[in-house]
Design brief:
18% strand; alpha/beta; 10 helices; seven-stranded mixed beta sheet; 7 strands
Length: 263
């Protein structure tokens, strides 16, 4: 049930939206992993940018139901998953118990984690940055929490960029009168669009804009990686035809960046 009062902010709305999504979050392709091919793709991406875990401390921000947390744990990292939705954390903890994974979960805000300075070797997040109200503050926070030489790995995309597949979908809807299927109800879709219209990257999130803010926060060696075809192809094979095509056509990327080591 959606809460409305005079003090209900965009941050409250974001938290409540994802809490309401928690019960069905893992049912969607692109959230949970549904094939070993996709799992291998994620493992490749993690090794490429972060190397072997070797017991290093990792903070998975906006961890949701802990999909990335488990991938990091499997790669040998000592993982803390942070999310501000109690409903998401409840499912994350249940999943970890079921799998026997010793992942620590904490409630917190990705823009102000309250974690000690220089306490993590790596930070990960997936589909978080587009939701940030103040990415400058968030990136400064992540810089602070990382140890010198630590790395952040962001997985996201410029979802406002229209693709040729979206145009094809619009034409099909017009001709057939059938709207594209969605994992969300019309009410949830409306809430999603309302939130999207008021966050920092409401007009779009090209990778270059994220890179500029990472540099501004003090990060160096910023790398944009669009070679995610193995992940997206594995996801597309589990989707309907047009949705799968759109997944392959979207501007999705990973960005890694490093906190400078002390001289």
């Amino acid at each position: 049930m959606r809460t409305m009062n005079a003090n209900f902010t965009i941050r409250d709305e974001i938290r409540e939206f994802w809490s309401d999504r928690a019960a069905t979050f893992d049912e969607s392709v692109g959230h949970e992993i549904f094939s070993e091919a996709e799992r291998r793709g994620w493992q490749r991406l993690i090794r490429k940018h972060l190397g072997a875990g070797s017991g290093r401390a990792a903070l998975d921000l906006a961890c949701g139901t802990a999909v990335i947390s488990h991938l990091m744990h499997d790669a040998g990292f000592r993982v803390t998953g942070l999310d501000w939705s109690d409903a998401m954390l409840a499912r994350a903890r249940a999943k970890a118990r079921e799998r026997g994974a010793d992942i620590r979960f904490i409630s917190g805000d990705a823009e102000n984690t309250m974690e000690p300075a220089e306490s993590y070797d790596v930070i990960t997040n997936r589909h978080l940055v587009w939701t940030l109200v103040d990415p400058r503050a968030a990136f400064r926070e992540w810089f602070s929490v990382l140890k010198p030489g630590g790395k952040v790995l962001i997985v996201d995309g410029n979802m406002r960029r229209e693709t040729w597949v979206k145009a094809l979908q619009a034409l099909w809807t017009k001709l057939s009168g059938k709207a594209p299927t969605s994992a969300m109800s019309p009410e949830m879709l409306a809430r999603h669009q309302s939130i999207w219209s008021r966050v920092h990257f409401a007009e779009g999130m090209p990778a270059e804009a994220v890179v500029a803010l990472l540099h501004e926060a003090g990060f160096e060696n910023v790398v944009v990686d669009r070679n995610l075809t193995d992940i997206h192809w594995a996801q597309a094979r589990k989707m309907g035809f047009l949705r799968g095509l759109d997944r392959m056509a979207q501007d999705r990327f990973a960005i890694s960046a490093t906190k400078p080591s002390r001289a």
